[in-house]
Amino acid sequence: MFRLALRTLRFRKGGFAASFIALFFGAAIVMACGGLMETGIRDAVPPQRLVNAPLVVASSQSFLERARVDASLTAKIAKVPGVAKAVPDVTFPVSPLRNGAPASEVEGHAWTSAELTPYALKDGTAPTGDSTVVLDEAVAAETGKGVGDTLDVAVGGKKQAFRVTGIASAASDDRSAFFSDADATRLHGKSGKVDAIAVLPSDGVSVADLQERLTAVIADSKLAVLTGDDRGRAEADGAVGSGDDLIALSAVFGGLAVMVAMFVVAGTLGLSVQQRHREMALLRAIGSTPGQLRRMILGETIVVAVLATALAYPLNRVLGEWLLEQLATAGVTSQAIVFRQGWIPIAAGVGISLLSATVAAFVAGRGAALTRPTEALAEASLQVKWFSWVRLTFALICLAGGTALSIVTALVMSGPVAASTAGPTAMLWASGLALLSPGITRVIIAVLRWPVRAVTGLSGYLAVMNSDARRVRVAGAITPVMLATGLATALIYLQTTSAGGGSSFADDLTADAAITSQTGGVPLDVVSRIKGREGVGAVSALVDSTVIFRSGEDADDSATALGVNGDGVQGTLGINPTSGTFADLTGTTVALTTERADRMRHALGDSVQLKMGDGANVDAKLVALYEGSGEETLLLPADLVAKHTTTGLASQILVGAADGTSEASLVGALQGLISSDQDLRVGDRASLISSGGGGGGEQTGAWVNYLLVGMILAYTVISLVNTLVIATGERRREFALQRLIGATHGQILRMVGVEAVLIALGGIILGALVSAMTLIPFAYAVYDSPWPSGPLWIYLAVIGGASGLTLLSTVLSTTYVLRTPPVEAAATIS
């Protein structure tokens, strides 16, 4: 039977091509997700600039901000036996200015660390004096500067001039500028701290032995001696532990992809086998056993699946690397992490693809194989049996699970975290409805029967009769429409609703203008420069970071830390204290939302134990409480937060106008006050609100979600087109008989057009049920409303696109089928 299976592939190219496409993309997506998960697990960050140092002492922990090392440790390490040299390394952002405008950002270092790459002078001399710099070849070419020229750079939000003393070259792709040790220490701005200490071993000393000695000497749990690929973590901010987010994301996305792939493959193969019932009936009539038919169908499927997964293998790596690049660009993971994919995700992807194809083929061929020959011949052109207790059991399990998750989402979960249960809810409801779709399709056709007939006349009458008689196969076409519309609506509006629930921060802003920088941050002293000036009513810096609670019920929970100037909060952020006063936000103090304080049982005057973005422990006095849009935000003094950030700069300075001062007048006055700082810009209130009030976390998360949802939907659309083309192609003989009794091409096209509308409407109705059972509970969880947030045009675009694809696929495939002469088509077996 396996040889027969191979021969049948030659005569069933259309159906097997559709199955091949579904299996090909499914295998590629699953293997790519497996590669992303392995990448997150390995968390490999190969060194670039520190490649010449076999050992690096740096922070061993994962922090949002760069955690630094005491500079005094350098001398201690240098005395360890086997250490030839210990080189301190500092890194800080530098923006060269060209024609007064910032060029792309580069990294600044001390010249003593140039040997760690190594960089070699190609021209000129080392930067030994004040205000001198050595540029690498790429930076020199971009700025057009050579030895002896003066280069203006923006460092720490301020413009400074340096004389170029040399040009250096290196094999590394890093873009660097090297300063004298004194200048590098000053520009780094972290007195007594360095970013890492590179260690060069003496000749004949093994790296492993020296690592053990250094580890014993350090005796600090926050530091580690890094070797191999781990050295790259000392170069890249946030690289340590950034793979954790990648693991979680790839697991969720991969799980969703697997479920969709199972649906798509099962649906496509099932429909492909269903159209061969006449062939199966003839084989049964001439003596073929059910086992032989199952083996034939299984053999055909395995051949297609093996070929599809084999060709998907080279694509999956390209897809995985592209996804990692997009996620890194969006800030989800470190850009320093490299894609790693071993044999395990490949084997898993192949196994899942082959398993889904095998299960689909077994289920699809079971009915035809077990039907008696005489019954099969009678039913060959019309399938009416679909119900089984196994099918009903799984459907009820899925619907019960979806209902339970809907209740949990609405009543137990809160805020955007409710998406963790809302997403699986959509898949469970889609699964349950898909299993029951033939029965539901009968109800839908009965409901739409009279409206369709009234509007479309004879074409509608024939379309309804055909759909009712072929409801099992119509249900197979409705299912991908339901998946496309239901998943698209649910997943997209989950994101817009989540963003809408957290948008009140930008809406509550009362600032009339904001000062931002083109070079990464605004110095905090800008606040004192503009405070009290004519037209300025209130001013506050905004320093973004993250803190972790060290004690109490919220221990190990993270929260967004906003560094502000207490006396300017109410006039810029629009937040009012319910107790205490923001004016007391100075030194080591904190303001919490009332919800957070109540849960942690904190009152004014209590000490709140925090771990700052760079890992430093701080005990802050609680001086104010306020009603916040969410408990995940707390207020701290701007200088306190800045001290524990990588750059020490504010993301922006918010300014409120004084009474009687217009917004335009304020913006003009601010532009005059900062005119000497070429990298600073002033924006009005409209630009402030459109930017979300600082911080792009929501936009980043939305972008990533839309990317992943888009991939799933693209795959679902492929299934939709495949299913409709197959379903139309199997009706070749039916159309031929209609033409032989006098039907015209136009009449047949109008009939299938109405059928396509019925399929689209059925899929949209079921998709609306899936999305409603997902979004209504989620909307309640986010902001106590039954209506999801987001523009209506998104839903209209989704259902419009699904309807258009359904109609276009059906009409075009019918037009192609009608090209065959009716006598020839009527003579075909199926």
Automatic annotation (TrEMBL):
Instruction: Give TM regions.
Output: 246-272, 293-315, 343-365, 386-414, 426-451, 472-494, 703-727, 748-780, 792-812
Give the UniProt keywords, A-Z.
Answer: Cell membrane, Membrane, Transmembrane, Transmembrane helix
Do the record's keywords include Transmembrane helix? yes
What is one term from the GO cellular component aspect held by the record?
plasma membrane
Q: Which parts of the sequence belong to the ABC3 transporter permease C-terminal domain?
A: 252-366, 707-822
Q: Primary place of residence?
A: membrane
Identify its membrane topology class. Answer: Multi-pass membrane protein
| Stored InterPro entries | ABC3_permease_C, Membrane_comp_ABC_pdt
> In terms of domain of life, where is this protein from?
Bacteria
- What Pfam family is a match for this entry? FtsX
Which compartments does it reside in? Cell membrane
Put simply, this protein is called ABC transporter permease
Q: What is the organism field in this record?
A: Umezawaea endophytica
